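Lecture 7 notes: from sequence to structure.

We start with a single chain of 146 residues. Read the sequence below before looking at the structure.
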Amino acid sequence: MELGLPTTVRSDLGRRSAPIAAGGALVAGALFVSTHNPASAGSPFPACAFHQATGLWCPGCGLTRGVYQLLHGHVGAALGYNIFTPLAVAAILIVWVGWVRVSWGRSPIRVSPRTGRWLAVTTAVLLLVYGVLRNVPVAPLRALAP
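Now the structure, written as tokens:
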């Protein structure tokens, strides 16, 4: 004889609570970033392994510093660290909202296959081009480095 909640209730509870727990982790992470400036000396955030190994800026370099700036309302400074900061934050929120919707029995956020392919290819190309351009040692393009 098993005590506790029926299997279906436990299953629903796990399915529904997972995105809520992840959302809590995202909020906790945002609170931590907002109170610990990644650009300051002695920052608790690790340096980019790619940058340390190669001396080059990867497409993600500056995202943590950009998020810190966004959380403090400095959109221009966030874009100065990484032009994709607002898009990365928006993408995380959209995926999370979609996960919450599905886990609570709502319909998923629909994207046509053609749009999905276009987004995937465009995102990959933009990140690759951005990663290359921010490392070109020409004065105007150096502004893309964090």
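The CA atoms of residues 74 and 135 lie 24 Å apart. Keep this in mind for problem set 3.
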